[in-house]
Amino acid sequence: MIVVMKQGATQEEIDGVSKRVKEAGLRTSVVTGAERTIVGIIGGAVSPDLGSSLERLPGVTQVLRVSRPYKLASREFHPDDTVVKIGDAYIGGEHPVMVMAGPCSVETEKQVVEVAKAVKAAGAKVLRGGAFKPRTSPYSFRGLKLDGLKLLAKAREETGLPVITEVLDTRDVEVVHKYSDVLQVGARNMQNFNLLDEVGKQHKPVLLKRGLSATIEEWLLAAEYVLAQGNHNVILCERGIRTFETYTRNTLDLSAIPVVRKLSHLPVVSDPSHGTGKWYLVPPMAAASVAAGAHGLIIEVHPNPDQAKSDGAQSLTPENFAYMMEQVRAISKVQGLSRKPLTAAKA
Ligand code: PEP
Ligand code: MN
Predict the structure, then answer these.
(1) All CATH 3.30.70.1140 domain ranges in the chain, comma separated
(2) If you write DSSP's letter for every residue of 33-100 in order, what string do you get?
(3) Within the chain, which residues score under 50 in pLDDT?
(4) Mean pLDDT of all residues in the chain?
């Protein structure tokens, strides 16, 4: 349930609503929008009595039942787009498409610094790189762990690019928080609810990948876990889902991008690298993602993809990444020009 305050409602009136909700044993999350303040009620079911008592409080214009199972992630609760700050750049709303790029795994200082410089020169705003790697086989390279985080910090120092890296386990949240600017929750951990709680308790942005077989609703409910802990800096990431098709590694669900933009206020990023598994499909699917309304892209880049310790087949060379960026810039221009709300036909 959400409580919509009148335009110009006072702080005292907003506090009055929160107090009444707390007395009923529930919690609130307050969103101050450009036009109105909305108080979301979380922590359990709201009785009809509480609903009608809130409606009678001063400063309240309406009490609405949120029709979706996720609340804080829904557009009903937060009508304006959420904008997340990463370093000096912003992602979400009308901000230019933010590109995050770098190797799948951090391997050596030379590799990560070289890639960081190249992707920055081509226009990337964030460096990606895995230090804790989720691998299907336990015998595959599982990342340099703390040493990898330190190499990312070194690359950040050399280039000024903020860093995104995956956190695999609740026990590593603290150390990953220390070394990174954005914490990535990988597809395989999308429903690791304890991990979602932990990344929700810290305040650095969280990039939440869609699970391999997760519905959009399950994905938004996973985001709800992070939001419910008080961290509102959540970025969603479509990275392909499992279908019957085997030619591509996954099927990049492009339609999920406008769906999520309709259902939620959170920024959405596309990952055509994991979404396709093939480097030559990355530029066209990156362009298509931007055309579909993605607020950002996350792209794997390696100086020698054929020698990469993970995901070489889907990694772009720095040259091909620069080419992709040109295409993305061209499509972004058109996307910006044509962004106009559609109206449904009347029944
Ligand atoms: C990655 O970003 O390297 C990764 C492992 O991604 P995903 O969780 O989407 O498979
Ligand atoms: Mn990868």
Answers:
(1) 2-64
(2) -SS-EEEEEESSPPPHHHHHHHHTSTTEEEEE--SSS--TTBTTT--SPP-EEETTEEESTTSPPEEE
(3) none
(4) 95
